[in-house]
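thought: fold this chain, then report.
action: predict
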Amino acid sequence: MTHSDVSLQQHYDEMYANALKHFQGQGVQTDPLIDDPSDRRTGLTLLIRPPEAVCHKISGIIEDFRALLPDQYFYPESDMHITIMSIISCYPEFNTQDFQADPYIELTKECLEGIPPIKINLKGITASPAGLVIQGFPMDRHLNKLRDVLRQRFRASELEESIDRRYTIRTAHLTFMRFRKPLRETDTFIQLLNNHRNTSIGEFTVDNMQLTINDWYQKEAKTTLIHRFKQGR
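observation:
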């Protein structure tokens, strides 16, 4: 395990410990907008869609949690993703009608030049007060390098961006559940969490990335694919 893996695992461990305290104390953070059709928050994201076999494996884990927590929000396979960078974080006033995609596509292509294929290992579950995530571990430095280049190039451009405005992304996690209702069986839920704490999902090499206009949850019905990038092209 590399130093970066240890650092990332420590981060996930801290997330998990803090979430357990929250669940046992204040409960969970529910999202009142998750089923609200008037939620207009929209943004621009560069993301990874895991391969089908990985999504199926995650769906198997989801079924374990859905059996216990049928009222919570679970991501369908079509919406599963790993965020590379939120180029424009979701906000209600995003003007999709006048949005000019070509400059964003061209600058992203330039950022991808020279970046080797990215490999990611998905293993174990961690949590936040608002939901559950699969732990993702980049197997090389290529994802971090790409993020650094994206930060530098977009900040130096005249394009609208809000990179790292909410927080500085450093993981390769995949959110698979959000809380829409309070917990009723906290102890049983935590036991199930512990059972899947180290469940291995698998490794994969990223063969393409997507630039999307999307809502807060990457719901398929509210997501528009702007461009699909093949690495090295």
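thought: worth noting. The domain at 3-30+40-230 is CATH 3.90.1140.10 (Cyclic Phosphodiesterase; Chain: A,).
final: tokens above.
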